[in-house]
Design goal:
CATH class of the largest domain: Alpha Beta
Number of helices: 27
Shape: globular
Distance between the termini: 55 Å
Number of domains: 4
CATH architecture of the largest domain: 3-Layer(aba) Sandwich
Largest sheet: 7 strands, mixed
Strand order of the largest sheet: 7-6-8-9-11-10-15
Low-confidence stretches: 236-244, 313-318
Number of strands: 17
CATH topology of the largest domain: Rossmann fold
CATH superfamily of the largest domain: Thiamin diphosphate (ThDP)-binding fold, Pyr/PP domains
Strand content: 15-25%
Structural class: alpha/beta
Helix content: 40-55%
Radius of gyration: 28 Å
Length: 630
Amino acid sequence: MTNETEQMHEYKILPRIDSPADLKQLSENELLLLAAELRRYIIEVVQKTGGHLAPSLGVIELTIALHYVFNTPIDKLVWDVGHQAYGHKILTGRREAIKTIRQYGGISGFCKRYESEYDTFGAGHASTSISAAVGMALARDVRNSDERIVAIIGDGSLTGGMALEGFNNVCNIKGQFLVVLNDNKMSISRNVGAMSQYLTRIITSPRYLNFKNQVWNSLTLLPKGTSTLRKIGRKTMESLKNFVAPGILFEEFGFRYFGPVDGHDLPALVATLDNIKNLKYPVLLHVITQKGRGLAQAENDPTRYHGIGPQTGSQKTAPDAPPQFLEAFGKIACEMGTKKLDTVFITAAMCDGTGLVDYRARFPDRYFDVGIAEEHAVTFAGGLCVSGFRPVVAIYSTFMQRAFDQLIHDIALQNLPVIFVMDRAGLVGEDGPTHHGSFDLSYVSLIPDVIIAAPRNGNELRDLLFTAYEQKEHPFVIRYPKDSCVAFDEDGEAKILKIGEWEAVRQGKDIAVISVGVMTNVAEKALQILAADNITPSLYHARFIKPIDEAMLKDIADRHSVIVTIEENCLRGGFGNFILSYITEKNWTLKVKSLGIPDRFIEHGSRQLLLKEVGLNAEGIAAAIKKAAV
């Protein structure tokens, strides 16, 4: 018997649950035991595999209650983001598969329609569940079917404008529709903004409940024959409710508001959901949960335990390992805060994820977290910019996709010199295709007047940030991966670079390798491999993707017969495509081979495994260069 099999023998209820139908055979006490076992199982698994731990621990009771009360998968549960859905995956036939979560060839850390019929809508970005669920509900109404629709959304996701757009269209629904608001006062970092403050007021103000109890108690004292007075009293209570009720915002959107209720009281959740599941109008159930529930460390520091790596000694970072780009960026941000007093830094609920924790502490008046609202972050930066400040907007590459229109309309069209720093560019690893930054070079480079750069190390990141500040004519985008920044001198001084200028790293013959950002470091290793075959290409670091170094490219074309471009971006519309079209336009006669991310979505796995899969590791690049040389 294996250790894993022995571990499962420690569980009494969980091994009996292969689908939600099995839940319905359990007693209340067994459901409570299942909740404890499910929480323990998730902790054990995620500490081995890594993953989003605190979000899933916070919704254990809610997940069980939803699957117990509703008839899934006929009834549709639509999870927002998806990183809180580990318990959902386990209860829907993926108990053993969860041990492979986020691993190469294993199941996804987010909801995937191809993975299970219980995953009704794919998720990875926030604020999508309500809009998707509204679509499902209206489709049901049109075909006159009777499945129930439930959207589960966190309070952090309500800061995203798309959630409010979904709310605005709920009025079109004629039948059952339930939104469960999971309120834990967190997105990834601590929640910010008016919506968070509003929800806090709801759960801390007893005004409505006290008022309701007082009126109802008074009505019960009336003589039994005075039914008319009772009816008047009820109507009066409903009218006055509008002045004091905590859920009035949601009711103005067309919902009947229920709550707040304790999201960890499983019997109460089951009873509440059972009472409201068949109401033939939109309902919002406000549930209060604790992120990280059941693991003391996660309860005390839910931000740190939002997502964790495998908790094994072999995974620990060596003491002398170079810092990640986000750490270097955080230190450079503090440098800029000290030296450039008109700079302000903006992020969208990702203070920790972008490395701005120290900056926030040192310069609180020049730090703005706008919540999960990337579109607002970009236009907000434009407003600051026209008012005399130099905004630096720090957002993951995948999330900047959501602000593409704002980047064009509100920034580039007005040629505002806003600085954009896009972390997680390229392949991010275990979070998979919803989080890979595979497209930014393509979607940004097509916008006129935008400067795009990619550093190969932390020192060059400093140079580019200060260069971006010194130029005051155009938007400036800097992108880098979730990776080591290779070299970073904390006490270094910035060099102002010439916009568009590349670096000649090594002079060779016949073949020229032009690489973008950190791919230059990988290309150097590839050239070392090729030296054994007496292949000695030249190597050029394209730190600027737009504009390109036209003079250097002309010199490269004059002295080489083959050009190999390397980028950690999709090949379609990327750097290599542009170089090829430029050479074609100039009628230069040389061969061009482009290496990058192929035209398909890359699944999850470690970053190094994925780079190998797409041929962007040193060995893959060396093989491609060798083939191009023939």
